[in-house]
Amino acid sequence: MGRTLKTFLLFIAAFIEGFILLFLEISTPVAVAPVFGQNLHVWSSMLGITLLSLMLGYFAAAYIMRHLNNWQKLFPYLFLWLSVYQTVIYFIVSKNQYFLNLNYYTGLFLYISLVIVPPVVLCGLTNTMLITLADEIFQNAGRAAAWILGISTFGGILSSLMVAFVFLPQYGLFNTLIFMAMISLIPSIFMLKPKYRIIPWILMCFYTLFFVNYREIKPDKTTKTNVIFKKYTPLGEILVADFPFYTESEWIPARGLFLNRIGQSLLNLNSQKPVWPYVNFTVNFLDSIFPNKDSVRILISGLGAGTLPYELQQKKFQISVIENEPILYEVMQKFFYASKIPVIFQDFRYFLNKNNQKFDVIILDHFCGENPPNHLYSLEFFNSIMNSLDENGWCILNFFGYYEGKFGEASRCIFHTINKISTNFRVYLSGSTQDQGNLLFFIRHQKNMTPWPPINLKIITPDRFNKQNAFVIRDFYTGFQNASIYPSVTWRLAWQNSLK
Q1: DSSP secondary-structure letter at 230?
Q2: Could you read off the pLDDT of 162-196 as tens digits, one per residue?
Q3: Mind giving me the DSSP string for 352-396?
Q4: Based on C-alpha coordinates, what's the Rg of the chain?
């Protein structure tokens, strides 16, 4: 093999190694989200395990090149193994429900490790060996490292853009895995000895057949759940499904919007009304206290499937919705309501920071999957809310129904955070029990001293929100996500059982 051809093949291999490595880093949170959500624990675990795997790959390469005289013959097989393991990832992800039976942290670390450790170790091995092979050509270690690392980084840059904006949104995770497995075979096809090149070609044919015939959404005859839409976004997996849902009294046909397999909105297909009591209660409550609805300005954080905004719009309120993910508006119009609801696509905190308007009502319903975003529950955030309310204004916050024991730590944190800036608020439970209802925080502007209107819900008195493991939530302290883990996991398990 000539020097020019050998150099070209090394550069192609470096590009593919960087391309695959960034794909693994971007897609792992997407694979993890339907099981464990997307939060600081997931991202820090993923990054830590990725760096550990790269370190193991670098040290393994050093050991192999020192003790194996013909290690160059091993090199083409690394890409072959990298390709095969990406099909193994496919099977691990398809069986992700088994990890829910483990402790949260045990399941999280084990799942991420199985997905990312073997392929990233292989990437670390190939990168180190590529630099060594390039050094034999350039006779200059620094120059060899610069070329290999530069081309590998370029592959990573291209991968990050294509995976996030093309592959995952258009083809889904499983199809993208197969496509990446096909790309990984290219160095093996050219670098293996001729008599062994049949192996990557056989795998390439198998992957091609699978890629052409695979469908992301397939009917499942073992369940009554009918998935009618699925798409991957930066937030994770967005899914719409029809399924039977049991209320506190009967089974009903329901259509749900799910983010990372967690219910965000639920519609009764018979009545075309929201299933969850807090939506109907919120609408009826605001309807009762505001006689002149067409002059009432309501700001809503979180669109979901549009159940709450739509019901309020039907009552003639002036509504504005702040939503981070544009695809949800398309989902709402196609599968839930064809209504034109005014939506601003921004982060809600960013909107508040730029806002100079006053609102009569601000409704906070901004779960991201099951993960409450820390920056939308902090003391600084609630100060911004108070500054954006009219003097007679209301803020209504929807949250987990738990307030006792370890499951209620997050709710107690919110209570004591709000209590720092206002005592003019009350908390109600929308269901009969903590695990069947949501907590609704009704917060009034401090200058609103009118008598409290009657609220036909169970009031939770302040003494129930003790300070056990509770703290005031601040912008740059992430303990709130730790406090939210137990109710989050419980909610996730409940929804997984509903979709079976």
Answers
A1: E
A2: 988 888 877 778 888 888 999 999 999 998 988 89
A3: HHH----EEEEEE---BTTB--GGGSSHHHHHHHHHHEEEEEEEE
A4: 27
Residue type, 366: H
How is residue 198 annotated by DSSP? Answer: H
Q: Measure the CA–CA gap between 290 and 264, rounded to whole angstroms.
A: 27
Encode pLDDT of 239-280 as tens digits.
899 999 888 778 999 999 988 778 889 999 999 999 988 888
Longest dimension (CA), the chain: 88
201's CB contacts (< 8 A; 6+ apart) are 189
Question: Which residue is listed with tokens 């995976």?
Answer: 163
Apex 162 CA angle, 161 and 164, nearest 5: 70
DSSP 116-184: HHHHHHHHHHHHHHHHHHHHHHHS-HHHHHHHHHHHHHHHHHHHHHHIIIIIHHHHHHHHHHHHHHHHH
Model-level pTM? Answer: 0.75
* Residues 34, 28: Cα–Cα separation, whole Å: 11
> Which residue is it, tokens 């290219």?
186
Integer Cα distance of 37 and 448 in angstroms: 39
Q: Which residues of 389-421 are buried (b: 16+ CB within 10 A; e: fewer)?
A: bbeebbbbbbbbbbbeeebbbbbbbbbbbbeeb
Check if the beta carbon of residue 302 is closer than 8 Å to that of residue 367: yes
Which pair of tokens denotes residue 65? 């090149």
For residues 412 and 468, the answer to whether their CB atoms sit within 8 Å is yes
CA nearest 33: which of 16, 21, 50, 46?
46
**450-463 residue pLDDT tens:** 888 888 888 999 99
How buried is residue 477: exposed, middle or buried, by Cβ count under 10 Å (0-12/13-18/19+)? exposed
Paired tokens of 227? 């998935």
Query: CA 485 to CA 374: how far, in whole Å?
Result: 13
* 13-52 burial: b if 16+ Cβ within 10 Å, else e: bbbbbbbbbbbbbbbbbbbbbbbbbbbebbeebbeebbee
What is the residue type of 48? G
Query: What is the strand order of the sheet 251-259 is part of?
Result: 226-233, 236-246, 251-259, 262-268, 273-274
* Residues sharing a CB contact under 8 Å with residue 206, sequence separation 6 or more, in sequence order: none
Could you tell me which residues come within 8 angstroms of residue 327 by beta carbon, excluding any fewer than 6 positions away?
Answer: 231, 233, 238
CA 90 to each of CA 14, 133, 185, 219, 309: distance values in angstroms, whole numbers, following the listed order: 24, 32, 17, 19, 38
Look at strands 389-399 and 439-444 and give their pairing: antiparallel
Residue 105 near residue 485, CB atoms below 8 Å: no
